[in-house]
Amino acid sequence: MKDKTIWIKADEGNWDDRKTVITTGIESGVDFILVNGADVSRVKELGSVRVAAFAYDNKSGADIVVVGKGGEGDGSKPLPPDYGGSLDVTSAIRLKEKGVKVAGYVIIRNKDYENFAAELGSVCDYLITIGTDWQVIPLENLIAGLQKKNVKLISGVKSSEQAKLAFETMEHGTDGVLLDTRDLNQIKKTAALVESAGVKELELKAAVVTRVEPIGMGDRVCVDTCNLMVRGEGMLVGSQANGMFLVHSESEESPYVASRPFRVNAGAVHAYVKVGEKTRYLSELKAGDEITIVDAEGRQRAGVVGRVKIERRPLVLVEADIGGKIVKNILQNAETIKLVTKDKKPVAVTDLKVGDEILVHSEDIGRHFGMKIEETIIEK
Questions:
Q1: Which of 23, 27, 281, 376 has minimal CB crowding within 10 Å?
Q2: Containing H/E element for 163?
Q3: What region holds the 3-dehydroquinate synthase C-terminal domain (predicted)?
Q4: Cβ atoms of residues 224 and 306 within 8 Å
Q5: By C-alpha distance, which of 376, 367, 347, 69 is closest to 207?
Q6: d(Cα 163, Cα 322) in Å, to the nearest integer?
């Protein structure tokens, strides 16, 4: 679900200071560390992280080669009248021809550098832009100008506040940020920000319960995550992809068992569960998979599956009406399994009754292999 990336710039200063920044970045879950070519192997010794390197070849073994430092991109060389003949553009093309992932690096000093950035971005996999006395306008121009190009735009920032601005520019925002700071707290704040950046809130609607009926024994799935959930959070699960119930986590205290805030007792093996923009069957989830955690306000965040438990248990069928459409879910029939009311309060399926209103996410679109499609599909 996470569609924004965070890069850490660690190419200046002594190694001990940079090492602290790098290890904090790795521990915070950043996506890339940007260093000079000579430091690539040292970074990889510190942890599992992708490494980008300033260079004009790939002798360092970096995951991404970044051209522009010491060239036209940072102003070390004058911009040529024909941008396509520049050292940076030529180098990027040659590296791409060799199958190397390439990023262009440009400090936007004026409109000419903005134009150069657009030219370099048209031949690179990533484009890193660093502002000087600007914030938004050149970024908006580049987002608009490169939206049809196969390039990811990375904006240079110095704080989590600037990162937030970059992610929100022109709604879509940049694809990532390059954070240049020695403030370890800013690294942690930006890493936390990127988890939800660019993720739209879902619309949850109240559906009226029309049927609650025990249906006998079956196999149900418990999804234990590597994340702690709080009151109001759970997963979207349903027997139909176009009508998914918010199934609450076991974060609530209970007289029957201790709370397990990492767990959602999600439903029967056949059910769909929302994962990013797709759905998956509960039965196919496994440790290490991504899962989407949703709260009663429709806010989403990415989670990681730690364990899946499939066990035979008594089941209950819940049907609800949403705008004249009947949606269904099959859950374990137990006091600890809860849905969420329109008042955003957890309600146990054992206490659920006809006429109650519960939160459901409804889509007027079909799905094929978990992906949205414009096709008539009937599920009942």
A1: 376
A2: helix 160-168
A3: 207-380
A4: yes
A5: 347
A6: 39
Nearest CA-CA partner of 340 in 357, 364, 326, 317? 357
Sign of CA dihedral 120, 125, 130, 134: positive
List, in order of start, the domains of the chain with CATH numbers: 5-194 (3.20.20.70), 205-373 (2.170.16)
Closest to 295 measured CA to CA, from 328, 239, 344: 344
pTM over 0.70? The answer is: yes
In this structure, are residues 138 and 131 in contact, taking their beta carbons and an 8 Å threshold? yes
Q: Kindly report the backbone phi and psi dihedral angles of residue 242, in degrees, each rounded to the nearest multiple of 5, phi listed first.
A: -95, 10
Q: Which of 123, 132, 121, 133 is nearest to 174 (CA)?
A: 121
Q: How far apart are CA 124 and CA 96, in angstroms?
A: 8
The beta strand positions in 233-299, using DSSP E, are 233-240, 243-248, 263-268, 272-275, 278-281, 290-295
Rounded distance between C-alpha atoms, residue 64 and residue 40, angstroms:
11
Residue 323 has a CB neighbour count (10 Å cut-off) of: 9
> Would you state the structure tokens that stand for residue 372, as one six-digit string?
């949205």
Number of H helices, E strands in the chain: 7, 22
What's the pLDDT score for residue 200? Answer: 74
- At 355, the amino acid letter reads G
| CA–CA distance, 84 with 6 (Å, rounded to integer) | 29
The continuous run of DSSP H or E covering 42 comes out as helix 40-46
Length of the chain: 380
Question: What is the mean pLDDT for each group of 10 consecutive residues in the chain (380 residues)?
Answer: 84 94 95 96 95 93 96 91 84 95 93 88 93 66 74 92 82 84 95 72 94 97 96 96 95 83 96 93 96 94 94 97 94 96 96 97 61 51
Give the C-alpha separation, 342 to 344, whole Å.
Answer: 5
206: left (phi over 0), alpha (psi -120 to 50) or beta: beta
Q: Quick check: 128 and 104 in contact, CB under 8 A?
A: yes
- Is residue 249 within 8 A of residue 233, CB to CB? The reply is yes
